[in-house]
């Protein structure tokens, strides 16, 4: 079977890879590009473990064919920390003990970032609905919700006054 | 956080125990670096896939895999014939027992398939596409047999029999012929007739629950690589890599030493990863193909072929006097075992009334095989369903007596010295304290609005001890490596490091807690039974104490004094008279060669003193009379942790147990069609709670120290899931006047009950 050449941007870097035409973006990110932080929990778009931000939109990468990523900008958990350290959400998750087994954590961090990118000051209910596409079986969500609210507050504090 | 800790003992002053450091494995887990079961790819690796039965019950007449073997890209095919037939022999994994005869048939069917999803062949090919095509090419001739799922139907005289040689155990005289009842377990204490004769109020009711799945987000995954020397290296996520080693070796007819298991990070287990499914299959495929083989289950396979826990039929009767004393309980609990014996029916009998002092008890537990996946452990196995029944009846009886349900519980609460319903005499326990904590919590007195209700319930879990090993190395810079064999499923590395820091007197971040493979640390039972912080913690503490003794001896050598004159304080050797300058661990480590060589110690325990765990919870709900939907408004859980080593992760266990319990109460169930096929094997239709379904879950950590642990630790992982179903049901009753006795209490069922009540 001939393979498809995809050129895109992944976590700020220019990237290209070869994939099967029916391969999911999730499988391409994991098995071709090597970004194992993107997890598979269901492969049917119901658990959010494979969450990525695709052209600014929170997306289940298991529901996207890899060739659809042509020319797209993709953000995954691997791109959240920078040279200055962790993203405030990552820090807040650590401080707030927002993970137990940790398999869902990359998806929650990406979903949390997608929320804070568009709404820097969410209330609890907005956080709960923003992450309602992500399943966590360990925590009961309490500490995840609190950590996202904490990270938002820290980011607002750190942001230059406008 | 919102948690408040209460304690009945003067709190010892600990430097590290009870603090909330960032977990050592946290960075890897928030950056995507942590490697879970599916995250390893090896050069030359093949992809394995498993052929599963489309029938709930059928005889396998023939399997023809010749076409599959001939396909391009296919490197190995296995069926039941590739695995030894094992005779009946019980083996343990720490919390549950397994009969290897059954396990080998569950992993790969022989003669019959016993549930839809039962594995009967597997292939390894150069791609998943080729592997799946090869599965399609395997021809199986089945003789489809009648199947049975319901426990009552499975016990009926004309029921289809799953195992022709299954004679009910625990019945005297033994039955003449086979049935689907594997075992009858009985608790018979006191005088039931006398007890009920003394009762002023008697309530009785029948309860029905459905099978539910542990619902871990990470599907089972393994990479097995059998080398030219015949030895296997197995990388997988599990609740116990020593269990994977012994079970995999046993199922292949090997000695355990032929298998090395490297523990991946584990993406949730809740009991469901205390046994093997694909690990022996991948290993045999790798052996046949001479290449590494990876098998990752799909979510559909996880639901159809791995352990849910039992659905049950429970009938209970409870009697009490007018002044609120329980006089007698009796009843019968039939639990689905799945395709092979081994439901937690006996545990349900033991746990249901364990929080209470009751003289007269007759409880029967029936272990019933049915045509669904063999059940696996699920958080406090057996207790949640039984307590749904018992705690609902206690609410009902308290209501009939006009008594506050918490006051009723306090009046009957078991305490130190009381003989438990299941036999042993309780040592120091904190049940009453959990009830009082809920009674005193602000939520218990918040005023409720229309269609709102409040319910309480309590729960018990034994907690387990078991075998654990630990090795502690002091490194050249004075830091310490702490090696254990317990997979870290929810923060146990941090707990091990906290206890080691306390013992060694060195900084928490100068300690590296490591989960070692099966060749690098001593045997350790599974991470289950709420045992790790207790039992593996004791091994860590013992090893640290050996290291400290060694460090003191070395300082004594340096000072040329008797070791009795050397104390270990805050990570330094101090001379009792104070006339010598203290020596730090770092200095002793730097000169280790000069004082006897590297500083290292190991310890192993078979911990016996796991203290019992109790939880009491209060739930506020609002019931929508139009739709039957139940919204959880507020929730508080109080639990005796003995001593919280890392309070954040204790709270996390408490909250997680409640969330799973709420899912069990309101939404979750296996739904089968008339052919015995599961109709909802995915997260869309098997709906677990999401963030917008739940409120914050407030926690009260009660600390009544366990006398069986140096710091007083009790296991905290499991008991939190025991009370929620009854707490929610009792809250629904408070809101609507309806007693729901069937799980899940989904909108349809609530609406039906409202309709039946003339609402």
Structure write-up:
The complex is a heterodimer of chains A (162) and B (759). Chain A is α+β, with helices and mostly antiparallel strands. Helices cover 34% and strands 15% of the residues of chain A. In chain A, strand 3 and strand 4 form a beta hairpin. In chain A, helix 2 crosses helix 5. The longest helix of chain A is centred in the last third of the chain and has 17 residues. The mean pLDDT of chain A is 97. Chain B has a 7-stranded mixed beta sheet with strand order 4-8-2-16-13-14-15, sandwiched between helices. Chain B is globular and about 85 Å long. The relative contact order of chain B is 0.14.
Detail the topology: elements first, then pairings:
The complex is a heterodimer of chains A (162) and B (759).
Chain A: E1 4-10, E2 13-19, H1 25-33, E3 51-54, E4 57-60, E5 73-75, H2 88-95, H3 105-118, H4 124-130, H5 142-158
Parallel strand pairs in A: 1-5
Antiparallel strand pairs in A: 1-2, 3-4, 3-5
Chain B: E1 4-7, H1 26-31, E2 46-52, E3 58-64, H2 66-69, E4 74-79, E5 90-92, E6 97-99, H3 100-107, E7 112-113, E8 119-125, H4 128-137, E9 139-144, H5 151-155, E10 181-189, H6 192-198, E11 201-209, E12 212-213, E13 221-226, E14 232-236, H7 241-252, E15 259-263, H8 279-289, E16 293-296, H9 299-305, E17 308-309, E18 312-320, E19 326-338, H10 345-352, E20 360-369, H11 383-401, H12 405-412, H13 431-439, E21 452-461, E22 466-474, E23 480-484, H14 492-504, E24 511-515, H15 532-559, E25 566-569, E26 572-575, E27 583-584, H16 585-590, E28 599-607, E29 613-623, E30 630-640, H17 647-666, E31 697-703, H18 724-736, H19 747-756
Parallel strand pairs in B: 1-31, 2-16, 14-15, 19-20, 23-24, 30-31
Antiparallel strand pairs in B: 2-8, 3-7, 3-9, 4-8, 5-6, 10-20, 11-18, 12-17, 13-14, 13-16, 18-19, 21-29, 22-23, 22-28, 25-26, 26-27, 29-30
Helix pairs in contact in B: 7-8, 10-11, 11-18, 12-13, 14-15, 17-18
């Amino acid at each position: 079977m001939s393979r498809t050449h995809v050129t895109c941007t992944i976590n700020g870097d220019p990237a290209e890879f070869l994939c099967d035409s029916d391969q999911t973006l999730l499988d391409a990110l994991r098995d071709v590009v090597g970004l194992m932080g993107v997890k598979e929990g269901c492969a049917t778009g119901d658990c959010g473990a494979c969450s990525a931000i695709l052209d600014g939109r929170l997306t289940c990468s298991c529901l996207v064919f890899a060739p659809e990523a042509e020319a797209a900008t993709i953000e995954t958990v691997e791109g959240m920390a920078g040279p200055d350290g962790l993203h405030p959400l990552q820090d807040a998750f650590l401080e707030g003990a927002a993970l137990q087994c940790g398999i869902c954590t990359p998806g929650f961090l990406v979903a949390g970032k997608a929320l804070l990118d568009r709404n820097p000051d969410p209330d609890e209910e907005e956080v709960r609905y923003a992450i309602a596409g992500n399943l966590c079986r360990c925590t009961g969500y309490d500490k995840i919700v609190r950590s996202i609210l904490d990270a938002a507050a820290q980011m607002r504090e750190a942001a230059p006054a406008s | 956080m919102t948690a408040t800790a209460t304690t009945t003992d003067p709190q010892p002053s600990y430097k590290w125990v009870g603090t909330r450091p960032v977990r050592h494995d946290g960075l890897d887990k928030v950056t995507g670096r942590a490697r879970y079961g599916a995250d390893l790819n090896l050069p030359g690796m093949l992809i394995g896939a498993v052929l599963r039965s489309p029938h709930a019950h059928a005889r396998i007449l023939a399997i023809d895999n010749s076409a599959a073997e001939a396909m391009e890209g296919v490197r190995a095919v296995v069926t039941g014939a590739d695995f030894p037939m094992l005779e009946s022999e019980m083996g343990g994994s720490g919390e549950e027992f397994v009969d290897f005869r059954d396990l080998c048939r569950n992993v790969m069917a022989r003669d019959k398939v016993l549930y839809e999803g039962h594995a009967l062949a597997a292939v390894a090919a150069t791609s998943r596409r080729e592997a799946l095509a090869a599965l399609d090419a395997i021809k199986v001739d089945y003789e489809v047999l009648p199947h049975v799922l319901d426990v009552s139907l499975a016990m009926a005289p004309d029921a289809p029999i799953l195992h022709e040689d299954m004679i009910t155990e625990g019945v005297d005289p033994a039955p003449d012929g086979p049935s689907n009842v594997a075992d009858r377990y009985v608790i018979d204490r006191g005088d039931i007739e006398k007890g009920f004769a003394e009762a002023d109020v008697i309530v009785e009711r029948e309860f029905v629950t459905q099978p539910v799945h542990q619902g871990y987000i990470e599907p089972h995954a393994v990479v097995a690589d059998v080398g030219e020397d015949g030895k296997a290296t197995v990388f997988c996520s599990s609740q116990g890599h020593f269990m994977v080693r012994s079970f995999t070796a046993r199922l292949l007819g090997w000695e355990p030493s032929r298998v090395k298991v490297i523990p991946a990070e584990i993406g949730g287990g809740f009991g469901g990863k205390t046994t093997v499914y694909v690990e022996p299959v991948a290993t045999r495929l790798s052996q046949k193909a001479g290449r590494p083989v990876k098998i990752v289950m799909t979510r559909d396979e996880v639901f159809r072929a791995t352990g849910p826990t039992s659905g049950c039929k429970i009938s209970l009767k409870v009697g009490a006097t007018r002044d609120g004393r329980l006089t007698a309980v009796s009843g019968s609990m039939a639990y689905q075992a799945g395709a092979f014996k081994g439901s937690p029916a006996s545990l349900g009998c033991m746990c249901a009334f364990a929080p209470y002092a009751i003289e007269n008890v007759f409880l029967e537990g029936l272990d019933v095989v049915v045509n669904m996946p063999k059940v696996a452990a699920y958080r406090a196995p057996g207790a949640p369903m039984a307590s749904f029944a018992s705690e609902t009846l206690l609410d009902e009886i308290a209501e009939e007596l006009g008594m506050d349900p918490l006051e009723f519980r306090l009046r009957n609460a078991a305490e130190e010295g009381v003989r438990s319903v299941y036999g042993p005499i309780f040592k120091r326990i904190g049940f009453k304290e959990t009830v009082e904590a809920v009674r005193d919590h602000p939520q218990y007195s918040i005023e409720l609005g229309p269609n709102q209700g409040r319910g309480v319930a309590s729960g018990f879990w034994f907690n387990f001890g078991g075998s654990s090993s630990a090795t502690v190395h002091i490194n050249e810079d004075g830091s310490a490596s702490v090696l254990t064999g317990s997979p870290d499923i929810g923060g146990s590395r941090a707990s091990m490091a906290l206890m080691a820091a306390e013992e060694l007197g060195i900084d928490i971040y100068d300690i590296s807690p490591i989960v070692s493979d099966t060749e690098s640390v001593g045997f350790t039972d599974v991470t289950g039974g709420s045992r790790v912080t207790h039992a593996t913690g004791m091994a860590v503490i013992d090893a640290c104490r050996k290291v400290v003794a060694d460090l003191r001896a070395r300082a004594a050598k340096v000072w040329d004094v008797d070791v009795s004159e050397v104390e270990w304080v805050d990570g330094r050797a101090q001379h009792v008279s104070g006339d010598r300058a203290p020596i730090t661990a770092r200095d002793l480590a730097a000169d280790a060669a000069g004082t006897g060589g590297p500083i290292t110690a190991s310890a192993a325990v078979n911990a016996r003193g796991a203290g019992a765990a109790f939880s009491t919870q209060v739930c506020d709900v609002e019931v929508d009379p139009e739709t039957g939907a139940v919204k959880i408004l507020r929730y508080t859980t109080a639990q005796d942790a003995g001593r919280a080593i890392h309070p954040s992760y204790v709270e996390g266990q408490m909250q997680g147990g409640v969330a799973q319990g709420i899912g069990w109460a309101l939404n979750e169930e296996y739904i089968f069609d008339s052919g015995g096929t599961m109709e909802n094997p995915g997260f869309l239709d098997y709906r677990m709670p999401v963030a917008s379904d739940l409120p914050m879950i407030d926690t009260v950590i009660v600390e009544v120290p366990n006398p069986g642990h140096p710091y007083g630790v009790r296991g905290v992982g499991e008991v939190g899931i025991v009370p929620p179903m009854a707490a929610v049901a009792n809250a629904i009753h408070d809101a609507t006047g309806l007693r729901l006795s069937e799980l899940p209490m989904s909108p349809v069922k609530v609406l039906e009950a409202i309709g039946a009540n003339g609402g």
